[in-house]
Amino acid sequence: MSQIIETHANERSTFAVDLRFYDESGLAVVPNTLNWSLTDAVGNIVNGHDNEAVAVPSLSNQLLFSGDDLAFQKGESKLVKRIITVEMTYDSALGTDLPLNDEIIFFIDDLMLIPRP
Known about the structure:
This protein is elongated. The strands form three sheets. Strands 1, 2, 6, 7, 9 and 10 form a six-stranded mixed sheet that branches. The protein has one domain (3-109): Immunoglobulin-like. The chain has strands spanning 3-4, 9-10, 14-19, 21-22, 28-29, 33-40, 52-53, 61-66, 79-92, 95-109. The protein is built from no helices and ten strands. By secondary structure, the protein is an all-beta fold. Helices cover 0% and strands 50% of the residues.
């Protein structure tokens, strides 16, 4: 199920997203593998962030976005949606290397005086 972050990022600023994962019993898990991508509302990759690997996943995995990661793309205006797609594997009582995929949605607020390329 997609998760929506209530706090908005500011255009071309800095924004951190904390990723934590839970198994089918609600217990926190450390991913075996963790990859993520950043896209706009129609699926275009933003700033080359396609299938990025987290080298050493942990209980809390922070993604940091800034500058061009939070820039408006051509044709976007006002309130812009970004989607982090996460693909990971984990171990639990049900088995090993189980897949878990999810989406995290956040929004970028338009700052009227920030110049656009």
